[in-house]
Amino acid sequence: MTRIAIFQARSGIDPAGNAEALVAAVEAAAEGGAAMLFTPEMSGLLDRDRERAASHVRHQNEDVVLSAVREAARKAAIWVQLGSLALESGDGRLVNRGFVIDSAGRIRGRYDKIHLFDVDLPTGESWRESALYQRGDKAVLVKGTPVGSLGLTICYDLRFPALFAGLAEAGADVIAVPAAFTVPTGRAHWEVLLRARAIEAGCFIVAAAQTGRHEDGRQTYGHSLLVDPWGDVLLDLGEGEGVGFGEIDLARIIEVRGRIPALDHRQPIGEVEHN
User: Fold this and answer.
1) Strand partners, 148
2) What is the pTM of this model?
3) How many angstroms from the chain centroid is the CA of residue 105?
4) Which residues, at least 6 apart from 20, have a Cβ–Cβ distance to it below 8 Å?
5) Per-residue pLDDT tens digits for 258-269
6) Using CA atoms, how far apart are residues 225 and 113, in angstroms rounded to an integer?
7) In whole angstroms, what is the distance from residue 108 CA to residue 125 CA?
8) What is the CATH number of domain 2-262?
């Protein structure tokens, strides 16, 4: 059994304040006996005012939030999956980038969000991530973490099962899904999609989420989840902020995949015949 922690956050428009909350979460996770902490998407800055947000965005090497979390992980001797940060890409756009940080504060892996959220919702909300962000172009698996081989995804990636299948076939034991889901889509799809991805991939899913009403006016769904390979929800943090704890037993993966070896049975589809 490996004890993990999930930080359900209500990140705001000030990176310094968000960094303080993350450092406190790292310390709480370590004090609670966790080997690894998982945090949400956009843990360092959540602000839909692009002009105001742009004044805070930095290159990875200059980001105050990443630096603070790396130092906190080193001091607490705990691994951190830093869900994602908005960072300069170098080509005029940004990247939505997640990190795996080890207990010495070293970056062991990073992932740029592949699937970007461009939608108009019935509520009147409109999101155009591709107007600001450069999408990633490769899946990422980080080996040797306290939870085994860890696959990285971010939020909207959840709706694309091929990414999860690819990570599972590459050897993922756990897949992280840090997110900032809206309330309407969260109520409708969050849990059912996470459980489906866990079942399909035969993996544990750790989904750290943003929650509540944020400084920029948006509202996120919360309900950070830990789901086992059978699709059972082992932890649900509801709508409150804070750190929760759960257990991951990697032997459960072998048991579940032995009962339903779907990964072994997957076949290439090839061209679809039209009649």
Assistant:
1) 145
2) 0.95
3) 19
4) 68
5) 999 888 888 888
6) 20
7) 36
8) 3.60.110.10
Would residue 27 show up in a list of annotated catalytic residues for this protein? Answer: no
Alpha-carbon distances, residue 271 vs 268, 274 (angstroms): 9, 9
Catalytic residue among 20, 31, 41, 143: 41
The torsion angles phi and psi of 265, rounded to 5 degrees, stand at: -95, -5
Domain ranges of the chain: 2-262
Write out the two tokens for 171: 């050897």
Positive or negative, the CA dihedral 168, 193, 266, 274 is: negative
The active-site residue, picked from 31, 71, 88, 113, is 113
pLDDT in tens, 110-122: 999 999 877 766 6
Is there a catalytic annotation at residue 41? yes
Asked if 265 and 210 count as a contact pair (C-beta separation under 8 A), the reply is no
In tens, the pLDDT along 39-62 reads 999 999 998 888 898 888 999 999
* Element containing residue 264 per DSSP (H, E): helix 262-265
- Do residues 229 and 219 make contact, with C-beta atoms less than 8 angstroms apart? no
Is 155 labeled as catalytic in the residue annotation?
A: yes
> From CA 267, how far away is CA 222, in angstroms rounded?
36
Block means of pLDDT (10 residues each) for the chain, 275 residues, are 98 96 98 98 91 88 97 98 93 90 98 86 68 90 98 97 97 98 96 98 98 95 98 98 98 95 86 91
Tokens 């009147």, residue?
A: 124
- The label of the residue with tokens 């679809």 reads 272
Q: CA neighbours within 13 Å on the CB side: how many for 140?
A: 21
Q: Crossing angle of helices 15-31/64-76, nearest 10°?
A: 20
Catalytic option among 51, 129, 155, 255: 155
